[in-house]
Design brief:
heterodimer, A: 99 residues, mainly alpha, Multidrug-efflux Transporter Regulator, Chain: A, Domain 2, three-stranded antiparallel β-sheet, B: 308 residues, alpha+beta, Helix Hairpins, HSP40/DNAj peptide-binding domain, four-stranded mixed β-sheet, three-stranded mixed β-sheet, 8 helices
Chain lengths: 99, 308
């Protein structure tokens, strides 16, 4: 953890011009994890990409956090199914003529 | 160029008011947003189209020019300065020009130039409720790289051209078909000095060898003559990177399999470690037998009446 890059939440909010409460709500829903360093809430750098996506869904598409939560679950499932499909397609190639 | 009708893209009438445009855009954006359609290039392309349509139709000035000049709306200022009233009907008719506002007439529109608008997409200016200069990382790029199975048996370097930039890429041995790797910072340039996006390369690996691959293991079917199968002996077979000599046990059955440990495909990013090669024996029945051979087979069959 000590080597992990962390960004203080207030700095993040200022940078992206979003409300602190939005980050709090996302945390409550388990959509992101906040780390506290000396009582300062921080966002791990590796979560920024996912967080940017959540910001876009909320602010650009006006989807509420409950909706984002549902979408995240569904997208995870889509991701899993795509991985599974990729695996099965590769396995199917074993039985196909590729000429 | 293909005709592109912004109204049609947003599924609107040409008389639609600003609220209807906004509503239609939001509805389609929720359906086609790249975040909601990962790895769907069609959705992404449509999303780019609705963004462009929204950019034009939700701006009264641009919409007016678009309605008036059709495909040439971006040059409206030049036309107006020159006192030239151009109509979209003008292109093919060659006769008298008469423009009716908001009634269509996009016949000469060539469109297709969506890229002009990309700069304002993917968060650049899109967040209606947020204001000020927000730094955004650039859009991620996705590319596909077609390789042959032989190419990915060894680690090698390849130079790719992505958006007119050359990228020297090390392709590790053992990459899987459909596997995607990330090249950080080689995506689109960030907005307002934000970081660059990433480049995602998906490998499409075709196989023209006699080996089938599953993960790190290879599979091959090898023919063996009946006599070696019955009596045993040595046989030389092809592996992916050379030949090996195998001892065949007597009475080997058709369809029997042997595993050659470590003769499969390289394990991704684990240098020197390989999967296994599975050989399935296919026993060839002799053909064009001589009389003598037939006699001997008949004799054998008599000796083997119980059909073991």
């Amino acid at each position: 953890m000590e080597n992990e890059k962390l960004i203080p939440v207030d700095q993040f909010c200022k940078h992206y011009n979003i409300e602190f409460s939005f980050i709090n709500t996302l945390t409550e829903f388990g959509l992101i994890q906040i780390t506290r360093i000396e009582e300062i809430p921080c966002i791990p750098y590796d979560q920024i990409k996912d967080l940017e996506k959540l910001i876009r869904l909320h602010y650009d598409l006006e989807i509420n956090v409950e909706g984002i939560d549902a979408i995240s679950h569904l997208l995870n499932r889509v991701d899993q199914l795509q991985m599974e499909m990729k695996l099965l397609k590769n396995r199917l190639r074993l039985y196909e003529n590729e000429e | 160029m293909e005709f592109i009708d912004y109204y049609k893209i947003l599924e609107l009438d040409k008389s639609a008011d600003i609220n209807a445009i906004k509503k239609a855009y939001r509805k389609l954006a929720r359906k086609l947003h790249p975040d909601l359609n990962p790895n769907d290039s069609q959705a992404k392309a449509k999303f780019q189209q609705i963004n462009e349509a929204n950019e034009v139709l939700s701006d009264p000035e641009k919409r007016k020019k678009y309605d008036k000049y059709g495909k040439d709306w971006k040059h409206a200022d030049e036309f107006e300065k020159g006192g030239y009233q151009r109509s979209p009907y003008e292109n093919n008719s060659g006769g008298r020009q008469e423009r009716k506002s908001n009634t269509g007439g996009f016949g000469g529109f060539e469109g297709g130039d969506f890229s002009d608008f990309f700069g304002s997409m993917f968060g650049g200016q899109g967040g209606g409720q947020r204001s000020g200069k927000v730094k955004y990382r650039g859009e991620d790029f996705n590319a596909e790289l077609k390789l042959d199975l032989k190419d990915v048996f060894t680690t090698h370097q390849q130079t790719l051209s992505v958006n007119n930039k050359s990228i020297r890429l090390t392709i590790p041995a053992g990459v899987e078909n459909g596997q995607t790797i990330k090249i950080p910072g080689h995506g689109n340039v960030g907005a307002n000095a934000g970081p660059n996006g990433d480049l995602y390369i998906t490998f499409l690996i075709s196989n023209h060898t006699k080996f089938k691959r599953e993960g790190n293991d290879l599979f091959s079917t090898v023919e063996m003559d009946l006599f070696t199968a019955v009596l045993g002996g040595d046989i030389t077979i092809d592996t992916f990177d050379g030949k090996v000599k195998l001892s065949i046990k007597a009475e080997t059955q058709n369809g029997a399999k042997v595993k050659l440990k470590g003769k499969g495909f390289p394990v991704y990013k684990k240098e020197g470690i390989y999967g296994d090669l599975y050989i399935t024996w296919q026993i060839k029945t002799p053909v064009n037998l001589s009389e003598k051979e037939k006699e001997l087979f008949i004799e054998l069959s008599k000796l083997n009446k119980d059909g073991k």
